Amino acid sequence: MDVLAVLTRLFAGAQAVGAQGVFQFDFGQGQAVWAQVNDTLEVRPGRHAAADVTIAVDAQAFAGILQGTQDVEELFANGRLKIDGQMGLATLLPQIISAARRGTTVEQPAAKMNQRYPARERASDRLSAAQPVLSGIERRSLGSLSVEDFRRDYLPYGTPVILSDALQDWPFFNMSREESIIHFAELKGITRHGDYAQKTFSTDRDFRSTSIAGFIESLERPRAPGEPAPYMGNNLMPAQLLELIRFPHYFERSLYIKPRIWIGPRGTLTPLHRDDSDNLFAQVWGQKSFILAAPHHREALGTWSTSEGGGLEGCDVNPDQPDYEAYPAAREVVFHRIVLEAGDLLFLPEGWFHQVESVSTSLSVNFWVNSGRG
Prior knowledge:
The protein is built from 9 helices and 21 strands. It is an alpha+beta fold. It is globular.
């Protein structure tokens, strides 16, 4: 494998996803290459004196990444890919790979890191505006909602619903925290620290590589006054743990994106935002509170996007302390406040705004779905 040529092709589209900095790759056996992405692209053999992030992975695994047979996050979780330096910059690597596969080049407009753009109207906004205002989020038992009823009454209208006692057949749900730690041995995750809630979707957040088992064991430790709770949020569910969960039967298995895992103590917070896929959110341990708002409130909530062409979307309005002078239309927003108990499964349709906070030590698994709705 001609590593220089491969990395040159790989990073040709890195600017388009907002990556700027020096990526150092260590392939073992003395083979090292760095790529500097700024106004121009430079790729050289050897070690850079001031690399922003260092990625250590063997050449065979790296070839698998490029061929699509290996997953970056899976390799990281299993300790086969190690990261040092700016974890925020490293988290852009999957996007860089995706851009390379699409054929994105540096001639295309470069995205600015952590730039905000106006959020575009979605089909779910229009669908939501045409529906009656919900008086609340319905709660049903899993056994009372068939696949046919779900696909008839909730899915096409983008209507959220909570399903109780939905995880009874999950081995993961039925084991103690101590038992689960055994399954997390040797696995790694990315944790968020500091003021991550104030830097939603920003690569400037304090990301760290952390042992999952060690993080779980530290969840109950006392924190200094004012110290934000660390959060292991939005990590890939390692392949060897998939046998401990069950994919909800409301969608075909082929439509599910790889599930994600979220672990944190009381107080972890993800500010108001919305996703671009339908979501089934399973609460395994503890409680999580959600504040929900319907999709058609996009403008009233001061919604912004991380990409000019549409991307992750955050909000300027804080549902706990809305600034009605700056956003007067927010007075008309109906906020739904719900609490997920252990064993609950929430259907959160694409486009619905949600703020999430851990009420107690919490572990959750979510399933984004390529449902095709909207």
